Amino acid sequence: MTETSSLFLCHLEDLPEYGTRGFTLEQQEIFVIRQAAQLWIYLNRCPHTGVALNWVPHQFLDLEGQYIQCATHGALFRFHDGLCLAGPCPGTRLEPIPFKLIGNKLYLTDTEKMPTYS
Ligand code: FES
């Protein structure tokens, strides 16, 4: 990993152990899902209409904490691959953001190839 293609995002302890946290980068919004030692990062954009998934800051999950839920029309997405299982856009996927965890530091990788938020 080179310095030019990676971006420090946060420390692991900055994330709730079971939950989500949103981040606003220069050109886009992303969010991290943490389930103990497992992490996933996606672009904060619903494949249904392209809007941000959340209405409340850092809240991306359904009431049971089992799925990512879009606040606009309720689409439900799996954690591990962002696949929509229910709602108005089944079969579509959230856009994954590549990352690496080094020690307790979370880095976004391949930042030049990250999708722009438009
Ligand atoms: S905008 Fe997300 S389900 Fe419609």
UniProtKB/TrEMBL annotation:
The lineage of its organism: Bacteria, Pseudomonadati, Pseudomonadota, Gammaproteobacteria, Chromatiales. It holds the Pfam family Rieske. It comes from the Bacteria. Keywords: 2Fe-2S, Iron, Iron-sulfur, Metal-binding. Gene3D superfamilies: Rieske [2Fe-2S] iron-sulphur domain (2.102.10.10). InterPro entries: Rieske_2Fe-2S, Rieske_2Fe-2S_sf. The keyword Amino-acid biosynthesis does not apply. This is (2Fe-2S)-binding protein. One of its GO terms (molecular function) is 2 iron, 2 sulfur cluster binding. Residues 7-108 form the Rieske domain. It comes from Nitrosococcus oceani C-27.
